[in-house]
Design goal:
Elements lengths: L3 E2 L1 H7 L10 E5 L4 E3 L5 E5 L9 H11 L4 H7 L2
Parallel strand pairs: 2-4
Antiparallel strand pairs: 1-2, 3-4
């Protein structure tokens, strides 16, 4: 995915291997859009929604804008 944020950024940055993919994968794009898919829905946000490119920024975005993925959280903090 191009320009991931939230859970997708955390998975990519920390090379997490998940059994279940996240329900929502977010990214930055030209305009706000939602593309429903199975098993993952892709949410596109505008540049002004970009979180800080840090653990804290993307974790906060994940918890505020995406369905919390408990396996991701568990592996992230293991």
């Amino acid at each position: 995915m191009n320009d991931p944020i939230g859970a997708a950024w955390l998975i990519q940055r920390y090379a997490l291997q998940l059994v279940m993919p996240p329900a929502v994968a977010s990214r930055i794009g030209g305009r706000r859009a939602t593309h429903a898919g199975r098993p993952t829905t892709v949410e596109t946000y505008v540049e002004s929604m970009r979180p800080a490119q840090t653990l804290r920024g993307n974790l906060t975005f994940h918890l505020n804008h995406e369905a919390p993925h408990f396996e991701l959280l568990s592996r992230l903090f293991a």
